[in-house]
Amino acid sequence: MRSVALDLGARKISLCEVADGRVVQRRTVPDLGTLEDTLGPKSAPACVAIEACREAWHVHATLSGWGHKVLLVDTSRARQLGIGHHGKKTDRVDAEVLALAVERGHIPLAHVLSAARQRLRLELGVRRALVETHSHYITTVRGIVRARGSRLPTCSTDDFLSHFRQAVLDETTRALVDPLGSVLAQVERQIVEVDRRLEDLCRQEPAIERLTTAPGVGLIVASVFVSVVDEAHRFRHAHQVEAYLGLVPGETSSGGRRRLGAITKHGNAYARAMLVQAAWRILQPHSTDDPLRRWGQDVARRRGRCVAAVAVARRLVGVLWAMWRRGTVYDAGRVGHASARGMTAHAQDLQVRAAAMKRAATKTQLRERRTRKLAERSPHLT
């Protein structure tokens, strides 16, 4: 097979093909469609390497449909191939380095998400952008109102718009913030629509409902975890998943001394943030008495709450992975007496499963109640 590499730039694509260690073809084109004569369905089959990036899923699907073997390169290990060595890094050079690596068979592969998980990941990305915009506008409105000598009542982000409309503000302040209030209303309507699409997608994923039986884990946290991990069985043990999400300490050990630092923060930053947020919820005082919470409180007393939140998030990853891998629900009793690996080794009785699914149903009802509450402020969506 031919050895080909594509460097997918923002404005152009650089192609390089090598044979016997020598470049036999170079091309720079504006888009993938222009390469149909070289890599189209009628061309000779090739091994094509592309770096993992935003358009990599689309390019992977297109080239695979054209009959080629596509290698998705793990960008975190791309420097091992020689990319960026000697301070020289251009699209043409990167494509050549990748093509030579393809011919040698030394490509560090990245995981390709299934089509269903790609759709879930994209929907979650849209929701994340809308929620961040919503929070940013609320902060801006509060800042403007405070700068004018007034204050808005403290409330949840879901109730902010109704409190904002009922607030007594002078004419000048109201004229300043009303345009932002109109945008907030539109963003809330879009969040309702995205939430409904996400709920439909999650109903097709039985694993997500089981994961919501864990404390601090709702529909969004569970769906983010599933969309990033994609397949539980591709990891051999919980520590690999924790490392994949960047929740393990960095290590610089040498000379017989072991030095552990802060967490690596490798992998998907959004998934890591959601898991830490779930850990903070587990550590809250009004949270239910749970082995994870008690363990986290012990860590907090020794190391502080911030370290404890990350530690609980790391342990929660192992628990979620074990539940998903074995198709089980959360069992607080087993978490209190076993690690995530030991937890998967036991069968669960119907009583534990029923109680866990009841907790998951309660979370779903609370979420549906929130969605209905937002939809009531947007009548055209109902």
Q: What is the mean pLDDT?
A: 88
* Number of structural domains: 3
| Secondary-structure element series | EEEHEHEHHHHHHHEEHHHHHH
Distance between the termini: 55 Å
Residue fraction in strands: 5-15%
Tally of alpha and pi helices? 15
Radius of gyration: 25 Å
Helix content: 55-70%
* Biggest sheet features: 5 strands, mixed
Q: In what order do the strands lie side by side in the largest sheet?
A: 3-2-1-4-5
Structure summary, number of beta strands: 7
Folded structure, characterized:
The protein is of the alpha/beta class. It has helices at residues 36-39, 56-65, 91-104, 115-147, 160-166, 171-203, 206-211, 219-229, 238-244, 269-283, 291-303, 305-326, 332-337, 340-343, 350-376, and strands spanning 2-8, 13-19, 22-29, 46-51, 69-73, 249-251, 260-263. The strands form two sheets. The protein has a five-stranded mixed sheet with strand order 3-2-1-4-5. A two-stranded antiparallel sheet has the order 6-7. β6 (249-251) and β7 (260-263) form a beta hairpin. The chain is globular and about 75 Å long. The N and C termini lie far apart (55 Å).
